[in-house]
């Protein structure tokens, strides 16, 4: 078994098709098929269920995928380890929650300093991004804190206020009993805070509509379809323009922190280390003169 066999296997598993995997890897289709069959022969088990439209992992294939992802991640990490600390390069796979509007400023400074680094940005909800970091799919991620996990290093970047957002110029919390809530899918920390508040108040929402993107959620709010919860900074321009109105969230649930996470047991490559250093510098610039305690990153 060769390392490249695992990379081929992982690509076929992700694409669900030998032909699509061959295109992505720039291999001939027959070579991909042969390597998968050889892998199955060596492991003495079928790894896929074949069907007319492609192939999906069976139980044994799912077991192998866990090992393959970890082995490939460690191998890629090993290569990055030997990069020059003076000239970070390669790809940083970073996850972000969609409402983080301060990221462009951080990235622009970093890219200017280290032009040989490319970014692959993955948008998702905090729960999924945490799992992706844990499973070596991401080098790090900006998620909603706090994060307490024995394998995760988490550093607070900043704090901000959560608000309820609606098109209506008047609002009480009881309005959620007759107006739909427009929220991210399960795993979103903002949603968890709103649902916790409503449970505390004994209020049952009339209807919850789930969306995959913040753009769709806020567009639906401006159209008068329902109510959402969001960081104030992400909708301040719409409030100023009078397109939506903001209402306070209970003090117990109205503050959210954004933290940057990465695995404690992964070697900090020069590329990731320089990115974390840039986060520190960016936070220092923003918080200069503010009341930030100790080594805490971020702003109130």
Fold and architecture overview:
With 300 residues, the protein is α/β, with parallel strands linked by helices. The protein folds into three domains: 3-81, Orthogonal Bundle (Arc Repressor Mutant, subunit A), CATH 1.10.10; 90-158 and 256-287, Periplasmic binding protein-like II (D-Maltodextrin-Binding Protein, domain 2); 160-255, Periplasmic binding protein-like II (D-Maltodextrin-Binding Protein, domain 2, 3-Layer(aba) Sandwich). Helices cover 43% and strands 22% of the residues. It has ten helices and eleven strands. The chain has helices spanning 3-15, 18-25, 29-43, 59-81, 103-113, 126-134, 189-201, 214-222, 232-240, 270-287, and strands at 48-51, 54-57, 90-96, 117-123, 140-144, 152-166, 181-184, 208-211, 228-231, 245-248, 255-263. Strands 3, 4, 5, 6, 9, 10 and 11 form a seven-stranded mixed sheet that branches. The protein has a two-stranded antiparallel sheet with strand order 1-2. Helix 1 (3-15) packs across helix 2 and helix 1 (3-15) crosses helix 4. The longest helix has 23 residues, at 59-81. The relative contact order is 0.14. Keywords: DNA-binding, Oxidoreductase, Transcription, Transcription regulation. It holds the Pfam family HTH_1. This is LysR family transcriptional regulator. Residues 1-58 form the HTH lysR-type domain. It comes from Paenibacillus illinoisensis.
């Amino acid at each position: 078994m060769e390392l490249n066999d695992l990379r081929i296997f992982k690509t076929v598993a992700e694409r669900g098709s030998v032909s699509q995997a061959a295109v992505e890897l720039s291999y001939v289709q027959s070579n991909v098929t042969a390597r998968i069959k050889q892998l199955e022969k060596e492991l003495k088990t079928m790894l896929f269920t074949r069907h007319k439209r492609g192939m999906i992992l069976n139980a044994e294939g799912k077991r192998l995928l866990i090992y393959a992802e970890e082995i490939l991640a460690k191998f890629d990490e090993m290569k990055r380890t030997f990069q020059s600390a003076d000239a970070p390069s390669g790809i940083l796979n970073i996850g972000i929650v969609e409402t983080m509007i301060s990221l462009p400023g951080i990235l622009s400074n970093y890219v200017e300093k280290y032009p040989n680094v490319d970014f692959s940005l993955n948008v998702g909800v905090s729960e999924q991004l945490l799992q992706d970091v844990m499973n070596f799919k991401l080098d790090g991620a900006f998620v909603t804190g706090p994060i307490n996990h024995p394998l995760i290093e988490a550093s607070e970047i900043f704090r901000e206020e959560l608000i309820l957002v609606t098109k209506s110029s008047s609002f009480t919390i009881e309005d959620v009993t007759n107006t739909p809530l427009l929220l991210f899918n399960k795993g979103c920390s903002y949603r968890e805070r709103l649902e916790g508040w409503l449970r505390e108040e004994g209020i049952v929402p009339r209807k919850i509509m789930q969306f995959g993107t913040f753009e769709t959620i806020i567009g639906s709010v401006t159209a008068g379809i329902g109510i959402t919860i969001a960081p104030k900074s992400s909708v301040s321009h719409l409030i100023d323009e009078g397109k939506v109105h903001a209402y306070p969230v209970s003090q117990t649930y109205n503050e959210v922190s954004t933290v940057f996470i990465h695995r404690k047991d992964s070697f900090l490559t020069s590329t990731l280390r320089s990115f974390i250093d840039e986060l520190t510098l960016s936070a220092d610039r923003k918080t200069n003169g503010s009341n930030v305690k100790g080594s805490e990153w971020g702003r109130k």
